[in-house]
Amino acid sequence: MLSGTHTGTRRVAFAQAGLAPVAALIAGIFAGIEAGIAMLYGVLVALAVSTVLVWRERQSMQHPEWDQHRLLKLFIRTGLERLVLLVGLLALGLGVLRLAPLPLLLGLALAQFTWLLAAATFHDDK
Questions:
Q1: What is the b/e burial string over 88-105, where b = at least 16 CB atoms within 10 angstroms of the residue's CB?
Q2: What is the pTM of this model?
Q3: Highest mean pLDDT: which range of 16-20, 55-59, 86-90
């Protein structure tokens, strides 16, 4: 069984956490502090969504007795939780906090591209 420290989802979450200050700093330097804050928020939204996935993955790993039916229900529930969290945090950032939409969405997209990067560089050493 995989350990939580060696899974691809956890690796992506760490990459997104490392990306957050770098993206905010670069956006802040080139486009201003407001863009930097919006970019940071977008990356943090992606990190929050990824953290839900890591949490549910760890939960499923701690219960090897769960059958496929229960794991499928957990998979569907996790997808819905991630969608609701994404929409809620985007509504908060764009509506309530009135962050700049383009840097926010660029930060979100940039953080999501770390999934592709992690998938391309992840090697299972088994």
A1: ebbeebbeeeebbeebbb
A2: 0.85
A3: 86-90
